[in-house]
Amino acid sequence: MTIDTLDELFVHKLCQQYYAERKLVDALDEMAIDATNDRISEGFADHRDETRRHVDRLETVFDEIGRQPEERTNELIDALEAERTEIQRQIGDDDLLNTYYLGAGMMTERMEMTAYESLLTMAKQLEMGSEITDPLEANLDEEQSAYRELDAMSTASDLKSLWNRLTS
């Protein structure tokens, strides 16, 4: 398959983001269960629920452009998931696993923010209306908020003992 137009590129990237969000629902569910820090676990569970709404919004975008929702492999998400699975097997310490989850979550949020920024840039260049841009902007806003929450957790006072134990 060749991509010859900006519209085709937009659809391709939309399909990849749809794939990513659907995969992340499962990964966030697993991380919410496996995290031993209640704050981290609750954060992942909340974001899992948000991610389900992201999937719904992307399905709305597909409807608005007259296409059936379609997944296209997103190799970045697949690589992050493979790394998570491998590192999770290698880490035996709960605090260390929680620390890894924070970093992995922040990395994933940054990738998702970039994906939504790119989709929005293309949608604006294609002069797509608010029925397309509003759901994408809502997803971007929630990804940015999730990133800020993870960043705040990484420096929160209830996690300071975790950092101190891991660095001493």
UniProtKB/TrEMBL annotation:
InterPro entries per record: DUF892_YciF-like, Ferritin-like, Ferritin-like_SF, YciF
TM helices/strands, residue ranges: none
Pfam families the record matches: DUF892
Source organism superkingdom: Archaea
Identification of the protein by name: DUF892 family protein
Organism from which the protein derives: Natronoglomus mannanivorans
